[in-house]
Structures
1.
Amino acid sequence: MSTPQELVACVERLASLPAVYHRIRALLDDPDSSVQDLANAVSSDAGITARVLRAVNSVLYGFPGKVETIGRAVNLMGMQQVHDLVLSTSVIGAFSGVRPARMHMIKFWKDCVFRGLAARAGAKTLGTGDPERMFVEGLLADIGHLVMFQAAPEATDAALAAAHKAQAPVHEMEQEIVGCDYAEVGAALANAWHLPNGFAAAIGAQIRPALAGPHVTEAALIHIANQILATGGEAEPDAAALALIDPMVAASLELDTDKLAHIRGIAEGEQDSVIALFFPAQG
């Protein structure tokens, strides 16, 4: 049996965020920093610069005309959105060399992208939360499973098999067999990497959003995205998703199958383009 912190400690030796991300985070926390300071920090890393410009000029943001410099990107998007975009590309890059033998990595990242897009579409459709922040939180919401399959592959695989056999929730079997679940491990990684306030709370409470405190809306949007993703193969996917969503979440956000269908449609429509953006070789 393992704690979330023990599993994260195993992976931290293999994956870490780049120095440029930490510089950007420090600038965001510094009230005296400027847009130019942030642009200079991003521009110091050629790989991240290329990914940010590719994203800014993609369907994900839809700005008119071509954005050719990081300075213009920061002016258009704002410092917070540039930070979040750098964070998402940095996490994907940090785990690029981590390929657990028992995981289908292409499917994992495609599901992560879909979850991020569904969380983003949910924020827009339901008129709550920051859509761009929700994309990043949704993208990272299942990162706990990547940690678990790397650090405790046999136990994690056994938990998934047991959940499938018993038709039980995965997190319950993970608690019983591994000692913790994917949401707890994801929150522990967010804390270990000192991600912005709210990431750990929202990721950690995605199963039971009411536990997220002031970040309950973010946790609820991830929770909704999870159920939309999980029911993609059902005959009536939106009715199936609604049945899985926490009743308190469904009631507070006035969810119905039409809203879920709208969110699902947006995520499905954007998925291929965004996968090509973050994973050019897989698009």
Note: The chain is about 70% helix and 0% strand.
2.
Amino acid sequence: MSNSSPLTVGSKLENRYEIVRELGQGGFGRTYLARDINRYQELCVLKEFAPQIKGGKELQKAEELFEREASVLYKLQHSQIPNFREFLRSHLNGKRSLFLVQDYIEGESYAQLLKQRCLSEAEVVELLRQILPVLEYIHSQGVVHRDISPENLMLRSADQMPVLIDFGGVKQAATTAVSKATGQPLVTLLGKEGYAPPEQIRQGKAFPSSDLYALAVTVLVLISGQQPKELYDNSKAVWCWRQHISLSPELGRILDKCLAYRASDRYQSAREVFQLLPTVNNPNPQPIANPNPQPVPASNPNISQIPTLNFVGRRGWKTNVTQVIANVGKTIVKLPGKKLFGVKFLVNSLKVGVVVVVGVGAWNFAQAELLKLPTKLSFPKLPNLPNSATLTKAEIDRQTEIMRRSKALGVRNFYPQVDRLFYAKYPQLKGRALTEKPEDAKYRQRWCDIAEDLLDKLEREKSI
């Protein structure tokens, strides 16, 4: 446990980070959830490094190693890795402490999800498809995670994508410094028992194939619900997972090679594994998280004559959720696959006709799509929107450019991803629709900031 006293709820670090609660503690310090006062109260994570080292020179060396490793992680830019925002030196109760500041990931770890149920083979194959490109990226940057396990894989609530957290390189830097300062070997701290491969546990060495080993163990744990020690025969020094679960020959062969004792006998890159993954159907037969709301049955018989379309702008902005709302003869109609910004279609399916209300900048495109509806439906002139004048040409141009870039990338569900990230960062909005009024201008700008950041990351990943 750290020698420093814990930060209390409501206290502020560097007059910027307000502590919300303590998330956990370990041998080198504590982890806190905090609000970044300088960034619109965004939630972030503070990871403290305060080892029990008495000597000044030893502590300085530990700090240097910690800061060096932090600088490596700071350079990583991937949508499935928390951004490392800042490295801080601070004093708490007269003692020096170092902090890493990183993005807060809203969601649950796969260890928590495993308490609900085991994953199917199809689901773990899908997980591999989503996480192996992340490993390929960090390995291309010369970084090995060193600590892959269900605890360090998060299912992000915002977009249901796996996120890789808690890189073990920082822990290695801390462990090395403490070991040198105290003269005590602490190699066994590098990686979780059962997940870390032999070379990492015994020699403190780690390669890209070391991460693949830990990922394979993670997959077996998620499928079987058993701990690694229950899947490994110590007397024979072999994995005996087939006594507990049955997998397809293709996936079995992949896992066996990832779990080879010698690093040189394993796959040498995440790309190799990705290319060999078997094709599976229906990868999510039992969603881990809560499923999307089911469509509301239409009570108006006339509604059944209107084709179901993907709705863009459920919250007044951009999303293509599947929910259809029918109430007192009114429904929200959806446009399939169209990822538009600021479009909201309200269709009044009365016998006298249909009234359509759309957001600024999207009418021409929306009109073309809506004209694909049955010809018996008529669309009157677009009504005047009293707040439409508050959107400047620059803002509309920015929205248009975001749409162009997302379409050029061919990203599935781009706008829903941005929506989820946006509302996760600004929970105070409680999911309310953004309007075109001046008071929402700052939030519209922040939504565009998030969209552009995501596009930047996706474009970098595509270029690798």
Note: The longest strand covers residues 17-26.
3.
Amino acid sequence: MSQLQYTRREVAMDGASTYGILSLIPVLVVIVSAIITKRALEPLILGTLVGFVILAKQNFIVAYLDSLYGELGESAYYVVVFGLFGIYIHLLERANAISGFTKLGLKFATNKKKTGLLAWIMGIIFFLDNYFSILGAGVSNRKIADENKMSREMFAFEINSVACCTCILIPLSLWGVFMSGQLETTLGLEAGQGLQEVIKAIPFMFFAFVLLIFVLLYQFRIIKPFGLMKKAELRAEQTGKLLPEDLEEEADENENKKDVNILNFLIPMVALIVVTLVFQELLYGLIVGIVICFLMYIPQKLVGFTEAFDSIAKGFEEMFGVTAIVISAFVLQNANDELGLAPFVVNSVVDIITAPLLPVIAFIILMILGFVTGSFWGMAAVCFPIMLPLAQALDANLYLVIGAVIAGCAAGSATCFYGDSVTLTCGSIAKIRNIDYLRTSLPMLVPPIIVTIIFYLIAGFIF
């Protein structure tokens, strides 16, 4: 995503007023009500309203609407990107353009383990951005996963996990660009020097390495899925029902269509990659990819002229739920910012931090803040100016702390069930609900998080 879109969400820490423990109430309301209702949008709205009740008392409706109106204007970028996301996926599906890749992929992915490996590799290949990884790996592998009876819950877990890890381990990603800029600002470096510091911190981004390995361990059944994920996998294997029991399987409109040339998928995707890489902006890549789909599919009669242009409206329509959840999460973040949630969490532990404990505390704080706010880059912008000077003052390993902060952001992105990454994965790719991800994937993330915490504890005393 564009750096501008995230830096506008920075939260001032020095002298920030907080509401203390009351700042935790809106987030708790969201989590508890989401578990009870099995929905995401309504709990987000409810939690936000509770936040504004604390802030504005009887004027909470006015305060909420003011925040919502302001967010709708500031979040126009997301509305456009998500809409283009929907258009691009809709065109690929209507043209059956993925069938050529699916046919080729099924020659390798003859079972669920190989399917998991292929999706893992594809997620890494599309490294430019977590959105991009979700799009590329998700669209290209969903049909293959379906054919091999992988539950959509497991598919969503893998796609989102790999996306959250890859984009921080490869510094050419948009995450790398943003983090480099944050380091230059915080450490007073010259333009371009921040990237060198990010590269030096990559070996210490333990969570990304650990989660990538755990994804493979789960897929190869070296560690068997457990809890509700185990039930989801058994359901898919034994009954062939890929979606949760209370969701209807979508009709496959391309079931009787002939497979099309693989170039109908590769050319738009390669163009999307190249343009995104050159301009460091996914929005431009999506526009070019959509235009190329029009130029290729209409002459081949894979989609009709009217149908192609109807996809513009349908793409935005199909992404409405995703957009509503993400914008609602941003409004909740506004309430959290005014309540001083981030300063409260950081200030609660800053007095007990020592040099050996700083890396693990930095990781845990960024993960928690990312999970409860859904703002991963925003929390990095908040915490870098605190954690890095603290590391220098305590004579802690600077690169270990940088790696812990960035890894904490990735962990927040992987765990936050109403964050943009999970919402895109569930809504546009896996076609499941965010709460399905929370109930099945969050427990699967606990073991890699525990291992990561142990690594940071050990590293803090060694390095």
Note: The two ends are 33 Å apart (CA to CA).
4.
Amino acid sequence: MNQLPNSIEARDVAFQLHSYMDARKHEENGPLVIEKGDGIFVEDNNGKRYIEGMAGLWSVAVGFGEKRLVEAAARQMEKLPYYHTFTGKTHGPSVELAEKLVAMAPVPMSKAYFTNSGSEANDTAIKLIWYRSNALGKPERKKIISRVRGYHGVTIASASLTGLPNNHRSFDLPIENILHTSSPHYRSMKKDGESEQDFAKRCAQDLEDMILAEGPETIAAFFAEPVMGAGGVVVPPEGYWEAVQPILKKYDILFVADEVICGFGRTGNMFGTETFKLEPDIMTLSKALSSSYLPMSALLVNEKVYGPVADESHKIGVWGHGYTASGHPVAAAVALENLKIIEERDLVGHVRDISPTFLKRLHALSEHPLAVESRGIGLIGAVELHHDEMSKTPGVLGARTNMAFHEGGLISRNMGDSMAFCPPLIISEKEVNDMFDIAEAGIETISKAL
């Protein structure tokens, strides 16, 4: 028998397939091994500390090493480590969390349904929407519209919603009945001389034109993030939502707000729905719901969605859908404690307080010769870079900049050539400045090398 590799890096390369990686390149370079975290920092297995400028994956709201979440998990583990929510069974944490989320919702919601990731939440939303159309006797109403550059997950259905090419290539996606309308990225999509408001109206007109071309009676729902995350942190232009929402109402199209990144304080309100005055019929939630300490996600649905679904389940005798870990008691207990921390420490207010410093430093990056634009709101943002000689291979400049940040002690994420910043909500003003000091130095290092 061959001897197993000794180091964790070698074992990783030998046995693990990673998400969002060039698998062959990973075999050559190996992983970054993170061993522990505290506050906004994580530390690798060589003792190097990094500012986690992405809050993990847009998600660790209360920071790393929060003992209250560890203790909440331990208490629930001892009491009831697992039970399901199939066939009318339940337990305290799932009931309390459902009640809490429905009460927190910024628009009237009827029921919560628990899943394990944002992808599963959006996938389930699609199934609910199709089920509802059948319940209403409208089987032709199955098409769903999302947006170019939108991100909604990686399951077969949610990856189809996602409007990013690499989530479709070689996967035989998107599936049938998923359509993509214009991205609301003003700088890259505007016409010469077009104002933000005129651009927003054109995006809305593109949406209406698609609805009319396909047939309004065939369109079931529109999915959108209040602020696009993995598509490059695209903040909608002035007037965008004011132009889009009336079109959805005009044609009686359900609106799904994907709050997986925006929810629980990221935009300066508890939900992006509040920030942009949205009126969704379904909200999908994850990430900061539990600060990703344990997998947890949810859908909130209003009565317009729930009523026909409930009637159809009565007609059939069952709503034939569910996940083994839906409403998992330990994950639900952690989510409840996480929400208590967000409220007790007024982290939403803290985001509002710290956002001016965050945005000032973010926008200062756009003054660098390598930068073409900065985009941000609340405590989420990105700076987009460009260099003529590297423009033929998008993403290479971003990847090099990412490595420069890494060398300086900052974990970011390049989405193409856009560098993202989405730190834990607990970050202090000093730590914001420290983070952008490293980013400035990293961009300057790359600039000099070029």
Note: The chain has 16 helices and 15 strands.
